[in-house]
């Protein structure tokens, strides 16, 4: 693997770093580039879900959640993938009330993922022991 650092502090349910690096052929820098694209796109999908909720548009919510679920699965972002899948399921049933609760959890997980990305990219330095 071409990369930097020890990834043992990255929660596997936030990002399965081993699987993600394997997915890109072991190239850490390639993974960072893909994660940058993801973290810059995921919030806009959460916004689309919120807009769909405001408009009471379950199709819009479903489509955005489906897209986020797929991209999260591709990079092994398990928590976000699971929440997006639940939002997609509830939107397909027209249960937007449950989605209103789930969007908050989704946004928290996107924020947590951003922190993981920043650590991997060296934007956040851990204090020295």
Question: Layout of SSEs?
Answer:
Blueprint (H helix, E strand, L loop, with lengths): L16 H7 L4 H27 L3 H18 L2 H15 L3 H25 L9
Keywords:
single chain; 129 residues; mainly alpha; Four Helix Bundle (Hemerythrin (Met), subunit A); 71% helix; elongated
Tell me what you see in this structure.
By secondary structure, the chain is mostly helical. The protein has a single domain (17-120), classed as HPT domain (Four Helix Bundle (Hemerythrin (Met), subunit A)). The protein is built from 5 helices and no strands. It has helices at 17-23, 28-54, 58-75, 78-92, 96-120.
Please state the oligomeric state of the protein chains shown: single chain
Structural class: mainly alpha
Helix content: over 70%
Task: Please report the number of helical segments.
Answer: 5
The gross shape turns out to be elongated
Major sheet: none
* Low-confidence parts: none
Number of strands: 0
Quote the CATH topology: Four Helix Bundle (Hemerythrin (Met), subunit A)
What does the radius of gyration come to? Answer: 16 Å
Task: Return the average pLDDT rounded to an integer.
Answer: 91
Number of domains: 1
User: From N to C, what is the helix and strand string?
Assistant: HHHHH
The CATH superfamily name is HPT domain
Question: What is the terminal-to-terminal distance?
Answer: 26 Å
Please identify the top-level CATH class: Mainly Alpha
Strand content: under 5%
CATH architecture: Up-down Bundle
């Amino acid at each position: 693997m071409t990369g930097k650092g020890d990834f043992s502090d990255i929660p596997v349910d936030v990002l399965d770093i081993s699987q993600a690096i394997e997915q890109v052929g072991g190239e850490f820098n390639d993974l960072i580039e893909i994660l940058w694209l993801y973290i810059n796109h995921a919030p806009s999908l959460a916004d689309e879900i919120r807009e769909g909720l405001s408009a009471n548009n379950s199709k819009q919510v479903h489509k955005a959640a489906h897209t986020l679920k797929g991209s999260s699965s591709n990079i092994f972002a398990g928590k976000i993938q699971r929440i997006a899948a639940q939002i997609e399921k509830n939107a397909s049933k027209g249960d937007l009330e449950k989605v209103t609760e789930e969007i908050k959890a989704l946004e928290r997980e996107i924020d947590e993922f951003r922190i993981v990305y920043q650590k991997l990219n060296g934007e956040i330095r851990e204090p020295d022991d």
